[in-house]
């Protein structure tokens, strides 16, 4: 907190004004205040009426919000009041509110929160306005808002101080208000299909469910290390064993990895599991779910993202990973069986091959380098190699590959799904292979989960499962290119004090 020696001139002036309010018997930080209307309701209901109609109706309203613009003209003045959804002009006259209240208005600052009672009318410029009859001070802002024309110019500062960004940046407010609508629409979709929403632990004693580097913590009473979950997959599949048949969870995941325009250390996903389904069932589910949610939230299947028009209406393209690589490079990995041949090709194409890489890892590396960024329209890439898919069923026709797919839109992965592996013997072997990878230096490899193997031994029905990245989907539907701008409180380095 600033001490008085560090205060700017503006901050000193505002503190003095707060003291003056106290001396006049007014609490600078206010009391509860009852509104009759939110500003958006006033606009929706009364903006259609002209000057004469409003005068005839004599509509009385009481609102509350923040002063974001103010100008005075002697014994009268105008200001704009902003609440959560909208802003409206207020006209304050000395003879209408009285000397005391007009004096408080005159001494108010941008950023102060006030309550206004008054009557609706239209100004000479035809702007819907409230003519104040009562002016109530509610909260003194001790710091000035950023300049209204420039806002928070430093993007990192806007993310650190999202509370200020939300006041001065209409786009930030739009994204913040759209995000919960998208999540609610996703919930409504899965509820309507008979899925049960559940909650599973955030602290996991075993690393599993995905390939990622974890955050580690320690529980003192149990004297055990725990991981913040990197996936919700394994607990949700235990619920299929328990007979819940169709389950989903929307929740935060945590991965101790890099920060980029599409990666944040904590992010939100929905994972859903459906008994008696498979990869194809999940393909049908994801294209129906995301196209339906897009239409319900945006009002259209066509959206704009980074100047690209994306067509979200189903059906979407489906192509095997090996065929997608062949389209771009003319290399057919269906014909390559030996690791040495794949390593030779990788070196020829400037692809790094770490010690733990198997043939499947090299196929994935080719896909990431040559295919991923070319996938603009929704495309389901299926047939991931078994080496990189420890929880997916093998393809019955070619066991080098699995019944797994990922959804790509505008060059980014949005979903990962597969026919769930429910054979406990095969699953144990896959876990063992992961442990070998960990020994060879892959710190993203999963651990052996003996309790999960035991659960599978009780019998899990054939099933399909899917994980969808909600933050990226919000980015897509709001045309926001950086994941940190769809998360209200993204992580950032501490400010360097000057």
How many distinct beta strands?
20
Segments where pLDDT lies below 50 for 5+ residues? none
Q: Indicate the overall shape.
A: elongated
* Arithmetic mean of pLDDT: 93
The helix tally amounts to 16
Q: Would you identify the CATH H-level superfamily of the largest domain?
A: Bira Bifunctional Protein, Domain 2
* CATH class assignment of the largest domain: Alpha Beta
If you consult CATH, what is the topology of the largest domain?
BirA Bifunctional Protein, domain 2
Instruction: Provide the number of structural domains.
Output: 2
Q: Would you tell me the structural class of the helices and strands?
A: alpha+beta
> Describe the biggest sheet?
8 strands, mixed
- How are the strands of the largest sheet arranged? 6-10-11-20-19-18-15-14
């Amino acid at each position: 907190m600033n001490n008085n020696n560090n205060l700017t001139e503006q901050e000193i002036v505002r503190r003095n004004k707060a003291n003056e309010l106290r001396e006049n018997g007014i609490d600078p930080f206010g009391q509860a205040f009852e509104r009759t209307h939110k500003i958006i309701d006033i606009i929706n209901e009364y903006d259609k009426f002209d000057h004469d109609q409003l005068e005839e109706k004599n509509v009385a309203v009481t609102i509350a919000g923040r002063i974001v613009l103010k100008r005075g003209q002697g014994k009268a003045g105008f200001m704009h009041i902003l609440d959560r959804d909208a802003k409206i002009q207020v006209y304050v006259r000395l003879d209408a509110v009285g000397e005391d209240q007009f004096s408080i208005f005159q001494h108010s600052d941008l950023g102060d929160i006030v309550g206004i009672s008054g009557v609706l009318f239209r100004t000479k410029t035809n702007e819907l306005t409230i003519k104040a009859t009562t002016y109530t001070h509610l909260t003194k802002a001790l710091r000035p808002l950023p300049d209204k024309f420039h806002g928070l110019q430093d993007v990192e500062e806007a993310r650190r101080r999202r509370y200020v960004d939300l006041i001065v940046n209409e786009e930030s407010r739009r994204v913040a208000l759209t995000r919960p609508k998208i999540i609610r629409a996703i919930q409504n979709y899965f509820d309507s299909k008979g899925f049960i929403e559940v909650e599973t632990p955030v602290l996991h004693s075993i690393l599993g469910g995905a390939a990622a580097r974890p955050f580690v913590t320690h529980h003192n009473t149990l004297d055990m290390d725990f991981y913040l979950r990197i996936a919700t997959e394994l607990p949700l599949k235990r619920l299929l064993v328990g007979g819940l048949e169709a389950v989903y969870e929307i929740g935060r995941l945590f991965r101790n990895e890099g920060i980029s325009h599409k990666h944040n250390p904590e992010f939100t996903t929905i994972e859903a599991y459906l008994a008696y389904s498979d990869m194809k069932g999940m393909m049908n589910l994801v294209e129906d779910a995301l196209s339906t949610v897009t239409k319900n939230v945006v009002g259209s299947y066509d959206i704009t993202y980074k100047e690209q028009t994306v067509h979200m209406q189903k059906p979407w393209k489906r192509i095997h990973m090996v065929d997608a690589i062949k389209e771009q490079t003319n290399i057919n990995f269906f014909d390559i069986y030996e690791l040495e041949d794949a390593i030779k090709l990788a070196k020829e194409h400037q692809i790094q091959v770490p010690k733990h890489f198997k043939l499947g890892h090299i196929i994935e590396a080719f896909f990431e380098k040559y295919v991923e960024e070319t996938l603009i329209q929704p495309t389901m890439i299926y047939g991931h190699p078994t080496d990189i898919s420890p929880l997916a069923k093998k393809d019955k026709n070619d066991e080098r590959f699995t019944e797994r797919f990922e959804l790509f839109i505008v060059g980014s992965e949005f979903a990962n799904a597969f026919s769930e592996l429910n054979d406990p013997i095969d699953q144990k072997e896959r876990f063992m292979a992961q442990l070998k990878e960990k020994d060879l230096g892959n710190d993203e490899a999963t651990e052996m989960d003996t309790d999960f193997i035991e659960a599978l031994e009780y019998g899990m029905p054939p099933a399909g499962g899917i994980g969808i990245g909600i933050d990226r989907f919000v980015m897509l539907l709001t045309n926001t290119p950086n994941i940190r701008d769809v998360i209200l409180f993204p992580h950032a380095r501490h400010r360097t004090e000057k």
